[in-house]
Design a protein that fits this description.
The chain is of the alpha+beta class and 335 residues long. The chain is built from eleven helices and 13 strands. The longest helix is centred in the N-terminal third of the chain and has 23 residues.
């Protein structure tokens, strides 16, 4: 070495240096090094849980001709030989569901997704997602499997389901299920059920995100999402204005999002058209119309359930880190 090594006992005092020169951080900070060793074990635990249930691991494109699979702003690049724009994927969802059409019944992918959004302690533009899809699965069984998979990963690292995440004590031994509208009423005493019935699904979701989300410290599966904000989800049979969908919140953060997949090509085409209208009126995160995906559905996709799990946030929770930068080896930083 021709440069001085960092102090093994004091570590690096400057947090920016820790992130920009992670190799120095790993040299001098065994605790931080263990976070990344634990991250590897967590991912292997998730993979093992899926393979135990006969899911197969696949790889789908990272560059898409049309951005889709989630509501987010994409990164744009250009393929010089083809002379056309391509988009770094914001989610692998629509390609994984094409595999269901092709006859694969249980598939998963652990890989990077990219969203052209702000930086924060819980957002990095390049992040790792686990997505898994099961043909002929049910929402309740998928919720149970997701819960058990997360519990198993936590126990492998912590040997207990009672953990600390930042200022919060979290008990992963018990996950509750709650309706989105009920949670909004519970946390907004001045709002009545009649008030909720008068607002749009988008407004209801915004109210939930602003007044409820950060208060969901203990593990909570939130159900009852409006179809309006669930463009890829199947409608509930009893209430067609509600999607068969859940999101899992722990420590006030979204950890997973899952739903029964919409497999009606006509309904999906209409949902895409609504997204295009929203995009035309200024919603930069709205989806584009993916004609090829609609054609795939016309060939017949079996009833299915799919889930996306944010690996980085899950690792944050299990290893008690309060910033996403502490669980990504080389996070994106401001210049």
């Amino acid at each position: 070495s021709i440069r001085p090594m960092p102090d093994k006992f004091k570590g690096l005092a400057d947090i920016e240096t820790r992130y920009r020169q992670r190799y120095l951080d790993l040299m001098s900070n065994d605790q931080q090094k263990n976070v990344f060793l634990n991250r590897s074990d967590i991912i292997e635990s998730l993979r093992a849980s899926l393979k135990e249930r006969n899911f197969i691991e696949v790889e789908t494109p990272m560059m898409h001709p049309i951005p889709g699979g989630a509501v987010a702003r994409p990164f744009v690049t250009k393929h010089n030989a083809l002379d056309r724009e391509l988009f770094l994927r914001i989610a692998p969802e629509l390609y994984l569901k094409r595999l269901l059409v092709g006859g694969f019944e249980r598939v998963f992918e652990i890989n990077r997704s990219f969203r052209n959004e702000g930086l924060s302690t819980k957002h990095n533009p390049e992040f790792t997602m686990l997505e898994y899809y099961e043909a002929f699965g049910t929402l309740n069984n998928t919720i149970e499997f997701t819960e058990n998979m997360i519990k198993n990963a936590c126990e492998i690292i912590n040997k207990t389901l009672k953990i600390t995440w930042g200022a919060d004590e979290i008990d992963l031994s018990s996950f509750r299920k709650a309706n989105l509208s009920d949670l909004v009423l519970e946390h907004n005493k001045e709002i009545s059920e009649e008030d909720i019935n008068k607002i749009s699904g988008k407004e209801l979701l915004e109210l939930f995100e602003s007044s409820v989300e950060e208060k969901l410290i203990q593990p909570t599966f939130v159900i009852g999402y409006p179809v309006e904000v669930s463009p890829l989800s199947r409608r509930n049979n009893e209430n067609p204005e509600i999607a068969d969908r859940f999101e899992l919140f722990i420590g006030g953060k979204e950890i997973a999002n899952g739903f029964c997949e919409l497999n009606d090509p006509d309904d999906q085409a209409e949902r895409f058209r609504e997204q295009v209208k929203a995009k035309d009126t200024g919603d930069k995160e709205a989806m584009s119309f993916d004609e090829d995906y609609v054609i795939a559905l016309e060939h017949g996709m079996p009833p299915a359930v799919g889930v996306g799990v944010g690996i980085d946030r899950l690792v944050m929770m299990i290893t008690n880190q309060t910033s996403i930068r502490d669980v990504i080896l080389f996070p994106q930083l401001k210049s």
